[in-house]
Specification:
Layout: E1 12-17, H1 23-30, H2 36-58, E2 62-65, E3 83-86, E4 89-92, H3 100-105, E5 109-111, E6 122-124, E7 128-132, H4 136-146, E8 151-155, E9 165-168, E10 172-175, H5 182-185, E11 190-193, H6 207-219, H7 233-242, E12 260-263, E13 266-269, H8 274-282, E14 286-289, H9 295-298, E15 306-311
Length: 314
């Protein structure tokens, strides 16, 4: 398979979309019935993945999928975590059994010795790379590897960086706070700060939505909520016992900027912040909205559940 990914600006041609096991697969693996709310999460997530795939296809992006036929805890929907494409090379930091056919299809690849799900914290562009909050040995490896062709920018933000800032096709930075030295490295590029401390609006929720979501988040200490479902103590206990590796800490993720950039004129988004959409539309970027109802359960936006493989070579 051909790979080419030097930036997020040139036309996207091929991406991987994450998968979830069916309820039947999960029941067989656990050897016990699963709660109705888990059935609902799996069924509605698959419905939304199908809609996301259709939207990519309309924008002439080939979508690769690798179904999960045998449940393993480490086979997660957030396919962004385990590998990253740098130009024509695949670097794998966290091997997923369901993606083995994909790995086999790539000749130019490296299984990185510094393992972990930290790939969302590495941002690649034509002549620079951002390394954000990597542990020391991984940081030294990537600084040496990426520094051969690119300037290295180091940052220390909390949480995966693709939930904190986003460069939209070199037209604008979306950010949750002063996460990077924007004026120093990109002096002519506009920055839209969504953080509430700087007057921004996160998620653009109505007061009712905000109250409901905060009430549910308090039950799990900010880790997850279930769309249109009131969690009970038994629900939380069941997820903690059997699905703990599926959930993250969604309270720290800003889904409004966790988007997929198709090219300089099109992005796909699962958030609901009309202020972001209006801003992007005003600078010539069309926003294609897709459903992902359980992003607060999986702790992933569209950027998290996809991983780009090929863009047009210029």
């Amino acid at each position: 398979m051909h790979l080419w990914l030097p930036n997020n600006r040139d036309k996207l041609k091929k991406t991987i979309l994450g998968s979830v096991p069916s309820a039947d697969v999960l029941v067989r693996a656990l050897k016990k019935p699963i709660p109705k709310f888990v059935h609902k999460v799996l069924e509605e997530t698959q419905e939304d993945l199908d809609e996301i795939k259709k939207t990519f296809k309309k924008l002439e992006v080939e979508v690769l999928e690798y179904p999960i036929n045998e449940y393993r805890e480490d086979d997660l929907l957030n396919v962004r975590n385990g590998f990253i494409v740098v130009d024509d090379h695949l670097f794998i930091t966290k091997r997923s059994p369901s993606l083995q056919p994909f790995y086999d299809s790539i000749e130019n690849k490296t299984f990185v010795e510094h393992t972990g799900g930290y790939c969302p914290d590495i941002y690649i562009h034509d002549d620079y790379a951002i390394l954000d909050r990597l542990y020391e040995s991984a940081y030294r490896y990537w600084r040496k590897e990426l520094g051969k062709k690119r300037k290295i920018i180091t940052a220390f933000n909390e949480g995966h960086s693709d939930g904190i800032y986003c460069n939209v096709a070199d037209k604008i930075w979306l950010t949750n706070g002063n996460a990077l030295p924007f004026k120093k490295h990109w002096p002519g590029m506009e920055v839209m700060d969504l953080s509430t401390t700087n007057g921004g609006v996160i998620n653009d929720w109505s007061p009712v939505e905000k109250f409901y979501r905060q009430r549910e988040l308090n039950k799990t200490h900010g880790r997850f909520i279930i769309n249109k479902h009131n969690l009970t103590a038994q629900d939380v206990k069941w997820v903690d016992e059997y699905l703990s590796k599926w959930v993250g800490y969604c309270d720290e993720t800003l889904f409004d900027l966790n988007i997929s950039i198709v090219d300089s004129k099109n992005v796909i988004a699962v958030g609901q912040n009309s202020l972001v959409y209006e801003k992007l539309e005003s600078i010539g970027v069309k926003v294609h909205q897709v459903p992902f109802r359980h992003r607060f359960f999986w702790d992933g936006g569209l950027h998290c559940i996809t991983n780009d493989l090929e863009r047009e070579k210029k």
